[in-house]
Each structure stands twice: as structure tokens, then as C-alpha cells.
Amino acid sequence: MPIYLTTPIYYVNDKPHIGHAYTSLATDVLARWHRLAGREVYFLTGTDEHGQKVEKAAQDAGEDPKAFTDRVSQAFRDLTVTMGFSNDGFIRTTEKRHYEACQALWIRLQERGHIYLGAYEGWYAVRDEAFYGTDELTERDGVKYAPSGAPVEWVREPSYFFKLSEWGDKLLEFYESNPDFIAPPSRRNEVISFVKSGLSDLSISRTSFKWGVPVPGDDAHVMYVWLDALTNYITALGYPNEKAELWRFWPADVHVVGKDILRFHAIYWPAFLMAADLLPPARVFAHGWWTNEGQKISKSLGNVIDPVALVEEFGLDPIRYFLMREVPFGQDGDFSRTALGHRLNGELADVLGNLANRTLSLIQRNCEGKLPSLPPVRDMDTTLLVPLDALVASVGKLLESQEYHLALEEVFRQVRSANGYITVQAPWALKKTDPTRMTEVLRHLHTALRAYATVLQPFMPTTMGALLDQLGVPAGARDLASLATPLPDGIDLPPPSPLFRKIEVVG
RNA sequence: GGCGGCGUAGCUCAGCUGGUUAGAGCACGGCACUCAUAAUGCCGGGGUCAGCGGUUCAAGUCCGCUCGCCGCUACCA
Hints:
The chain is α/β, with parallel strands linked by helices. Helices cover 47% and strands 16% of the residues. Strand 12 (214-215) and strand 13 (218-223) form a beta hairpin. It is elongated. 41% of the residues are buried. The structure holds one RNA strand.
């Protein structure tokens, strides 16, 4: 079963911030997990490069839009490297293949009668180049003003429309028969109540700017952003060529998105697809926002979090761990140095790092650095080993529903209990009283550590790679299935070294 | 305004279809241990489960009201 996972395509009028990194990270963890489970995965991310804002930003920069987007989208490609993302593809909406896909989809929708030419009208502020709703306006001396203070006028421009109004009932049926389509459930309820309140047709073209995909057969129009942007998910798989090699990945298993763009993914997108007789995605997950030290993040406050700076200061894996562990996926969360410090010092270094280090040091010193033989399992070992058998299944199940924080909690519950096991068994004391038993205990701990490191790889690829090195696990034996095959007795283990560096915590 | 959600230990939160002395992690206190990244393990203190009133043999868990907080309420991506 091929697995297709996507991030949104990121709009290039802005440089990457913590939100972009977070969305892609969550997707990356899923992608890595499925690969470890032996599934074939296609993980897509990319950039959204059309629209009036980009056109204008390029103009202001004195650049051609294409040159401008080439430059800005590079920052997003760089981010995938900085954050260790394992994306298989990176799509840009300015690519030729994307124009072809968009136009093919348009024609298909048009042929099936889902598109008509009408007029888009509303209160328009020339200065802002934006439309406003009546309830947003204020009136002084008979003139209406936008919230920005710009005067507005009633404008009417020709526009193609998608007959979204006809899809309400079909969408509701779809949500009903696919209860997992929208997550988390609170968002699902919001979407359903929105659809129940009635849908209007959707304007899907503009004549007021040029920087977009031309509407087939009517060059005066370019496609409006969402039809263009959403289509990226099928462009990347070869659409309209449904015989393309990658097309077997459709429909997507999970579109990971921020909560601000849920509606487009949960309403417009399945409607477009169903109208085109294509399968809708299996799931859309809307995650929350980060605050910075309790404060809402905004450019005007100047407290935007730069993921590159974070990684430089704290290291990649601690950041990846923190983002996935600190907050239930779907909820808003707060990024603070104190909280990061507690996770890094109190969980990664003290609980996991220290267990690995104390175990491997004992093996190094007392077993000549060789892996002790696979021992019998005694009653007193079951507290350590029995939960281990269920670890892969329980982590897998939790990731299936994107409950990353619970998956990590489950692993760390076991790591904590392994610390209890080593203290009770006290292999350092057995060294004098029962050396054989000492080797048994150490081998069991090695087995446990191997399992922890293996399942944690998607979250902390580099550090867990280093731990697997220290555990002597060869590169080809690091997937989930390999856990069933014990390592050969007596292999040489390298001298251990600490995996996590602690940081100063204030508060 | 309408629809929906939340308010449980100092902090962050679990508590499914109501049922023995309400749980976890962190923080805090004591003890133990000393293999290890001055770590780890054990024990413990602490909550009128927002408030009021109902239903019930029994309510944090259902119903009503009050107070407080939050989300959604379409075409900026």
C-alpha cells in the first residue's frame, strides 16, 4: 500500500518560520515511520508562487516574478535540509507541469459542467488591492472605508465560478461516511457546521492580475489561487497522466495543514476532486499555532521564531523532539526556553541518554565491549520485556491518528521503567555476586534500547542513528521488522558517548 | 448574535458508554543508591474535580442555570 503524505505548498511572500517547519516536521515523522514499517512512501512539499501579492512583491523588488520566486523559494528548499526533512519531491506552482495539470483539471471541470462565467463583485479597496465584506466596513460622510482606512468602491469584474453550491449534500455525505477525513474532531465539527450553513459558488479566476495559470481558452483570466494551489497535490504525481509512475500514490493518505487553511482542504478540495471524478484524499489534519514565550507571534511584535536559528542553538533533534512532544498535535502550544530545557534535560538527557550511557558503559567495561549472549527470560525480566513487544504496535497506532505526543509519551514511559529495571537489577552489584546474571541483565537492556532507538528514529533521525551505532545495529537492521531478529552474540560495541548535551535552564 | 468546545493537584494535562480511598509527567519534600550525562530508583505532601441546583442506590463523568476562557461564523495567501 503506497503512502502519500503532503505539506501545504508554502507561500513565498515570507521567509520560513516555525510554523512552516512544524507542519513539515509532522509530515516528515509520518513519512519516516511508514518507511521504517516497510511501506512505499511519497512525501511532498513545495512552494506556492502565484498571486497578486507575489506579483507586487516582485515589482517592488524590481524583479521579474519568476526570478523573484526562484530566489525566495530557495529558502524553503534550504529549510528541508536544515530540518532534516525526507521529502521525496518539492513542487513549485510555477513549473510547466503544474500549468498543464491545472489547465487539464480546469477543462475537465468545465466539460462536466461545473464551471460557468459570471461576475465577482464586492467592495474593493484599490489601495489595498483587496475585497472586503460589508460587515468589515465603516462609513464616514457617505464614503465607505476598509479596516485599513482605504476607501472602497463597489467593483464588478468578470470571473469564472465553480458550482460549489451544488456540493453541500455530497460533502456532508462524504464526511459522514469518512469520519476520519477531518482531524482533529473539533475541526471536523466546525467544517460540518460551516457546510450545513450553506455554500455559495466559488470565484476561481481573476482578471485583475496576470501572475498565475492562464484560464484555458480565455487569456484575460488567470486561475484564482486555491484551484491553482490545491492542484499541486496531483501535479506532483503526474496528473493529468493517470498512467504516470507516481499516480498510484493517489489519493493522498494525509494532507497536513495549518488550521487556517483547513476549509480549503476539507471543503473546496474534495469538491473539486469529486466534480472531476477523482478520488478525494483520505485525511486532512489541521494543526495549531505556536506562541513564543506565551506571546502571540507576529511580524509587528518582532517575535517570529526562526527555525534555522533554533537548530543552530539547540541542535536539530532536540528541536524536533520538543515540537512533537510538547503539544498535542492539533492544539496550539507555547514555545519557551524553559519548556525546551525541561524536555531536553529532563527527558532526552536524563531519562533516555543516561539509560543508554549507563548500560553501554557497563557493557564496555564489564563485557569487554562485546554484546552479551541472548539469555533466557526470567520472571524479573518481564516488566522490561513484555511491554516491548507491544511498543511498535502502540506507537504505530498513535501515529496513525497523528497523536505524536502520546507516541513519545508511550516510548518514554517504557524508558523510565527501564531505568527502574536497571536500578532494581543493579548489574554493577551483580558483577561481584553473579556475573552471568549481570550479562543477562545487560543484554536485555540492550534489546530494549535497540527497540527504543528504532521507533524513535522518525523523530530524531540523527541522534537515534548515533545510538544505533553505539548499540552495534548495522544499517540494514534498523527498520521495524528487524526488531524481530536479535543481533548476533559477541559483536563488538564501540565505546559509548553521551547523546544529548544539556542546556542551561532559567526558571 | 448563532453554532461548538473548555474550566480536574503549583504547572501541563489524562480520566471511554456514571460505580471501590480522583490519576500521569514536571515542580516540591524525604529516603536509598552510586553503574551512569552531579544522574537514577523508591516513598510522600498537595485537589470541596469553576459555582449553584437537579436526576440517580451511586456524578468529575448525565440534565439545567450562572461565571470565566476559547474556536468557527467563506473567497488575503
